[in-house]
Design goal:
The chain is mainly α. About 60% of the residues lie in helices and about 0% in strands.
Length: about 110
């Protein structure tokens, strides 16, 4: 994201809370946490079933993508924040780490 859209990356870095609010709104504000919906969808490996609840999008993660999110969480970041950062950074684990360290790391120190 930093290389392809530096203006967007800068805006995200300057306003991380506003960015996460937008992600939550776009993901569907139907009362359920959008990250929880994504996690639930990611846990459904097989193909049977009706998909996402009305007004929500299902995002399925591969084993490799799930492992990347787990590595981010293992660094001490909240799982929901790790998932949001990973997806916001086009599933680039290195960019997600940088984003989390620059924008969420201060909150971890509290």
């Amino acid at each position: 994201l930093q290389q392809s859209h530096p203006q967007i990356a800068q805006a995200i870095q300057e306003n991380p809370q506003a960015f996460l609010q937008m992600v939550a709104e776009v993901a569907g504000g139907g009362g359920q946490d959008p990250v929880s919906a994504m996690l639930a969808a990611a846990g459904q490996q097989g193909g049977g079933g009706g998909g996402a609840p009305p007004g929500q999008t299902v995002i399925r993660l591969t084993e490799e993508e799930r492992a990347a999110v787990e590595r981010l969480s293992a660094m001490g970041f909240d799982r929901n924040m790790a998932i949001q950062a990973y997806l916001a950074c086009d599933k680039n684990e290195e960019l997600a780490v940088n984003f989390l360290l620059e924008n969420v790391g201060d909150a971890m120190d509290d």
